[in-house]
Amino acid sequence: MIQYGKDFMDTQNNKGQEQSGDKSNTVKDPDQWTTGAEPMTGAQKSYLKTLSDEAGEEVDETLTKADASKKIDELQHKTGRGLNNGQ
Q1: Rounded distance between C-alpha atoms, residue 9 and residue 15, angstroms
Q2: Can you say whether the dihedral through the CA atoms of 11, 23, 38, 35 is positive or negative?
Q3: Are 60 and 40 in contact (CB under 8 A)?
Q4: I need a surface site. Which of 19, 29, 40, 78 has the fewest CB within 10 A?
């Protein structure tokens, strides 16, 4: 079983709030993240590898945290993996 860091999981869990219309100050667009320009985390890289393999796509390993988050969203929708409420 792959374990992801707290920051990564918080980010993934907050996405459902954003999509459901909750615009509280705890939910930010990846483009607004203070650390969004930093290299993606190890957890993001691992999850992107899993999703990209399943989707049959290659992923740029030099993505930033923000871009990795967006790519994770894209690949989750493409594969159906990791989506809440059947989204």
Answers
A1: 10
A2: negative
A3: no
A4: 29
Whether 25 shows a pLDDT value over 70: the answer reads no
Region of residue 80 (phi > 0: left; psi between -120 and 50: alpha; otherwise: beta)? left
Q: Say what the pTM is.
A: 0.64
Instruction: Mention every residue, 6+ apart, whose C-beta is less than 8 A from residue 73.
Output: 15
pLDDT of residue 21: 53
DSSP state of 4: -
Compute the distance between CA of residue 3 and CA of residue 78 in angstroms, rounded to an integer: 22
Q: What is the mean pLDDT of residues 56-68?
A: 94
- Compute the radius of gyration of the chain from its Cα atoms: 12
CA–CA separation, 43 vs 68, rounded Å? 10
